Amino acid sequence: xxxxxxxxxxxxxxxxxxxxxxxxxxxxxxxxxxxxxxxxxxxxxxxxxxxxxxxxxxxxxxxxxxxxxxxxxxxxxxxxxxxxxxxxxxxxxxxxxxxxxxxxxxxxxxxxxxxxxxxxxxxxxxxxxxxxxxxxxxxxxxxxxxxxxxxxxxxxxxxxxxxxxxxxxxxxxxxxxxxxxxxxxxxxxxxxxxxxxxxxxxxxxxxxxxxxxxxxxxxxxxxxxxxxxxxxxxxxxxxxxxxxxxxxxxxxxxxxxxxxxxxxxxxxxxxxxxxxxxxxxxxxxxxxxxxxxxxxxxxxxxxxxxxxxxxxxxxxxxxxxxxxxxxxxxxxxxxxxxxxxxxxxxxxxxxxxxxxxxxxxxxxxxxxxxxxxxxxxxxxxxxxxxxxxxxxxxx
Length: 395
Ligand code: ACO
Fold this sequence. Notes:
This protein has 17 helices and 3 strands. By secondary structure, it is mostly helical. The protein is globular and about 75 Å long. The protein has helices spanning 3-6, 38-44, 47-56, 62-73, 80-87, 95-109, 118-143, 157-166, 172-184, 192-201, 207-218, 226-237, 243-252, 270-286, 290-306, 315-325, 333-354; strands at residues 22-25, 30-33, 36-37. α6 packs across α7 (118-143), α7 (118-143) packs antiparallel against α17 (333-354) and α10 (192-201) packs antiparallel against α11. It is 55% helix and 3% strand. Acetyl coenzyme *A is lined by residues 223, 226, 256-263, 306, 309, 311, 314-316.
């Protein structure tokens, strides 16, 4: 077979690994973590139980989960040097960039690299799951001009994160809903950030570099950023009466409607269905959100117009409404996604280093050959930079 026939831009549909971590059937709307249906896990398990399942392949016993939760609870604090480093970040910087830099910095503090030592692996898993939420919350308070608060050892994973953001103990329903959101975002097979994590893992570098590279990949607008765009879109539409004209305008002008469509799912994303139920629970307890009416109308109109093409709500469509009700600022939606996805990235990291082969795809070279060097005086001007105001200094 010729190289050209093998070439798939973006490796679309090309299997690049064997994995036992998660399974998706996009036509039936099935998502399983290690063989368990996402609906069952969302209803019955906690995020840390699900993380254990993803990373070690089996549901934990009560003792195993207690020990795992205990270790994570007592590793939530971050070094004051990391907090001080974060204080030097510009407040206007995106929280995903702050998270990527902070995750990479963890590698400076825990630099021993022993990928064949199960204790090293467990400690790295514990540290990353424990400290990533603390770093997200710390940047949120620092950029508002406040000192970060210390984690509370008497609160569980989800409640502690909401506490660190708001300095208030959250309502139990809010904490449970947030915990389920983490479970729903924990893993989704070979997407861009997971692939990025696996490529980085395959060089046998440390797990902090693996997570930092995955966070950087998740931050892009084609990947983790759509949940923010959904809220902006609902704000722009404003009311139920404007939905039909907005959708028709998008279709006429070939503009993508945010929160709809998926490369794999051709039916409603099972996570969207669960998130919609969570949003309704929050509205029933804490009051309605007028944008929910707009969202419901959108789902109906988009399904009428584009359902035959397999365009239905994806995970990002209802998650923003849940986070809004939890009083979470819009630009933290993607960092929340990262907090959850650390579990999936670590599961793939562990799987990758267990049977490693460095990723080294090839390319089809279509550049020049056999060119003759010409001295700089004879190089033809092909393009010119606009002059910079100070020599050597780029604004
Ligand atoms: N709105 C309107 N039309 C759409 C949408 C949408 N959201 N998504 C796909 N379509 C249409 C396309 O216009 C195209 O129509 P055509 O065949 O007439 O040209 C057809 O459906 C196929 O679209 P593709 O872009 O080829 O589908 P692909 O699988 O590449 O795209 C993607 C998937 C990127 C998610 C796309 O649906 C999209 O951009 N959605 C909006 C952004 C979004 O919500 N992203 C979050 C995805 S979930 C996640 O990453 C966590």
